[in-house]
Write a structure and sequence with these properties.
Chain lengths: 262, 640, 386
Amino acid sequence: MTVVISLAVLVFLVVAAVWPDLIAPGDPLAIHPLDAFQPPSAQHLFGTDESGRDIFTRVIHGTRASLLIGVTATAIGIGLGLIFGLLAGLGPRWLDFGTTRLLEVMFAFPGLLLALLFIVIYGPGIVTSTIAVGLSTAPGYARLIRSQTLQVRDAPYLEAALVLGRGSVFRLTRHLLPNVAGTLFVIATLGVGQSIVWASALSYLGLGAVPPSPEWGAMLSAGRTYITSFWWMTFFPGLFIVLSAAAATLLGRGLQQRKRSS
Amino acid sequence: MSGTEGTKGAHELVPISPGSPSAAGPQHATPLLDVRNLMVRFGRGMPVVNDISFTIAPGETFGLVGESGSGKSVTSRALLGLTGSNAHVAATRLTLAAAAADGVLDLRQLSARAWRGVRGARVGYVPQAALVGLDPLRPVGREIGDALRLHTKLSPVERRAEVSELLAAAGVPEPELRAVQRPYELSGGLRQRVLIAAAIALRPSLLIADEPTTALDASVQAGILNLLERLRQNGTAILLISHDLSVVSRLASRVAVMQHGAIVETGPTARVLDAPQHPYTRQLVAAVPTNRPRGTSLAPQSIAAAPAESPTPAPSPSPSPATAAAPGESAADAELSGPTPAEPPSPAATAAPGESAGPAEAVAPAASPTPAAAGSAAGAGSAAGAAVVLRAHGLSRWFGDRAAVDDVSFTLERGRTLGLVGESGSGKTTVARLVLALTAPDKGDVELLGQPWSALPERERRPNRRRIGAIYQDALSSFDPRLTVGQILSDAASGGRSSRTDVSALLHQVGLSADVAAQRPRFLSGGQQQRVAIARALAPRPDVLICDEPVSSLDVSVQARILDLLDALQRELGVAYLFITHDLGVARHMSDDLLVMRAGRIVESGPTESVFADPREPYTRELLAAAPQLSRLAEPARSR
Amino acid sequence: MGSAGSGKSGTVSGSGGNVNTVSYVSDALDVHEHPQTWLARNAPLLRWLALRLLGVVFVLWAVSTITFFAIRLIPGDPAEAILGGPGSQASADSLAAARAEYGLDQPIGIQYLSFLGRLAVGNLGQSYALHQSVASVIGENLISTLTLALAALILAVVIALGLAAWSTRGGRAAAAIGSTLEVVGAAVPHFWLAILAILLFSTTLGWLPPVSVAGPAGLVLPALVLAIPLAGFLGQVMREGLLDALSSPYALSARARGESESGVFWRHALKAAAIPAIGLTGWAFGSLISGAVVVETIFARPGLGRSLLAAVQGRDVPLVVGIVIVVALVYMLVTTATDLAERIIDPRVGRRPDARGSAPRRNTRRARTHAHKDASRSRTHTEIEP
């Protein structure tokens, strides 16, 4: 049930990201100063902002950027995590030791700290903030993939393949990698939600995408000044962040449970 | 009782006579527990327990026997009111005799609060999962103290004293020290004793023991059964629930056999075991391998009756093991395997010429149903100088400063079975790993087919790995969860290039139908999973098969079929088995020769029948004595 | 009772067939020896702790080194940053003076060593922007942020536990509502929550100040905003732990002993659910610090997070480095403390399963399948989500 609802939400978001004009035909950047600060109405579903831009249109058109940032950041995180995790899980003992120590050091920069450090070095912007989020999630993925790799490596079925006279290449490609990869999809789904939240937080702090770009975090940031008088400017972009993150998480958990029970 | 008391008495059996007068049987005036037409159903499903009735007299031990899924554990939950909120429990009568003379307690009408007054105080419960039945985060004494706290007004200090006494009464040495330890610091046997101490804290008149000895070593098991018997003699009635006929036969004066949620047969234990009426009971009794000669069939359709076939290279209409094994496998098995045609010659029958080298001794045991003949045939086989396929020489392996395997030597000849028995921790599995060259020996070596084996580097060993296979206790975890049975088998046979017909021939060989190939192993029953494991292990046509506890987690009737299958395959293919088991009955039934292992050393070895008839080592005698057996009850001397 | 059976089956009869002879010696042999002194008993724990603290020192050194060299990657002349960024058009003289003041004219190796030397005595250098020692900036802000984080942590644990307890015991609907709230809670970004909170409690209701003021009233909204997403995460973990414990075989034995449902909950399940939650506390603290960056900015509350953001925006390198190092240190100390707590509550953690003490391997599958059956059956009893 929850899986169906979250899938529906995600499908809607993907449509909005690929063909935004299907849902909200109109220019997200078109300025109508006379229509500024309109509350939500039939004409402006989510109201308008300080320049009279339609917030519904902007939110829908912002889906692409926000989702893309989330997916890219997750891909970077999982990619790095995969490299380190497999090195540690499959490499010789010293490599595992070294990689594990490195991960411990990375873990000592909790949460956004690593991202902020990265932004200090390379300056704010949509690209750096995406890489920064990917970088700061990488240690977590690496640890997960390492333990998953170790678990599969020591699984009785790998030993059974050895007893049957299988070489290491066969065991790696036929059994180990596919079984590690099988869990990655779930991890990725769970991760996209968090990446979207983190990336939008960076945008909100003015370190990621910048207004007037219709990215959700940036829109929130722009609406910050008007919180008390014009709530809709911040409410709706935020709602979409919550919606996409929650849907991704619910889908991931649903997949996880299905995997566990089957 | 002190911990130093009589080490030699550790495994001694207390003579138990289930027919003793205190167990008066069903005629007792007022039964302690009276169950009539009990039905339990979950949600809108089919009844899990259907219309069962039995009574238990005060001070009687009543056995409830059934295989997994028979509904015996649900029955015990129903008697405790713990079936859960979505269960429907109905009965025409469900009463417990009250302690005082004020009549009986109707368990059907108890409030939640009244139930709590019954549980623990009037009915004690010893759960089936001895190893996980105690809260891992609390000292075990607290668990016992909880029972006292809930039902008495004792002060904490008094409770602590009482806990020590209870632990001592349950046979736990150094009770004050044990009481403050946590479960992981205790052995399985001690944990079970702690659970029993908690169950008897309030001197309940009825004790429900649900699989109290499952997963315990035979000697520990004997100790627990003795303790239960002592409780019964002190006046506690016991409902003993077990899948294991031999356990029940040791204690129960009367027994009920459950199948598919119903009681199919009930009566005095001796009568039920000696002269079972219901076909299912007969099947269960027959499936117990203890004292069943080598080569005889355990499952209903006797393969021994069929003419023995020698594995000639020519295709012959050999009675494929499939025909013997397929009918009547547990319900799920039967559905899937379906009728298997007997005419296609098993691919293994047309085996490599090398395998027909020593067919003579493979035939002999099959043709001779008596143990004596089997023994002599075995003797003749070795005298003929049959090819040695596996030789271990002075194997040793240390883990830290402890020798897991210490100077183990043996030889295994083509087409024969070498049994390896021992309790947990004796080093059996390490021997298997050494022989499979998964672990390198610290000393000694293994030769396979007369060639160096353990001494080679893995790369040089690999081409010959197909000569030695293995099956394990947990078949399911030895399969890649992503692959179907068909993929698993074709991977095993000739490196993934085998065709679909090869796969179905392999399946047919182990008594499974071809459509199993599309399934994933986790959707198969335990017996079917082990059959797939056997098919996979035999696919590369090995000369040796290492069987590490292959039937330990299977129900007894499924176990019987798997053992029959292994027997038939050995005759057909001439493959040699190293058969590792903790179960002496299984070992005796399966092996030509026997090794007894203790603390990493072989303490006794020789032809199986002579080891059983005349055990020389004290340890072997202890082991034999501790193993619960059906036969002892079935012997005429017992009935008075 | 006579000798029950004899002959080749090998029954030992006649030798001490006393019913009251309890045979437990074989059990007792399996049990670990237990040294009695406190020091001896806790030796493994102390050894672990010593190693762990050494590890903290190592990681701290690595963190400092990485940050030191990472900031060298920043394009441009650090001296310009000191003097107010590239737009300041500082003279060559003042640039040279700034370089000399901050030691930037030395070779990189010397700079690194003197950086480490200063770090060892707690000197984190001078902030470019604030013209104040980094240590004093951190000193002024650390307490405020730690107070906020601690308040949020306590609040999050209380919310998560309450929600988990209610949803595992309140039937099907409660389970569905509880798990949805947890997921949504975990997905809500701090800044959006902060905005909603300000709208609701300050603008509409007027109960609490929209800007953090000194005193407890100013702490309520920021702590709540930080706590809710964390409570969502902790709640998910605690709920799994509670469900596992409530459906475990030991909970069944407790019920069969006459324990009530609330007795099972308080005596058995709570502790079991607390362990994974404690394990997460270190991570939670880290996420609270990153959350503090956002929350302190929105509520204009002085603290490390806001200082860090300002330093990042102004590229105040020494301040960023100083805060990163201090946060890493606090984070590692918190993680060490929670790991220690975990080990004290559950001594099995980190104990290598030696061959001797491990459970018998055979029949474990049977035991496991039975246990699983128990679990699935009781799960229907506790009514988890469909």
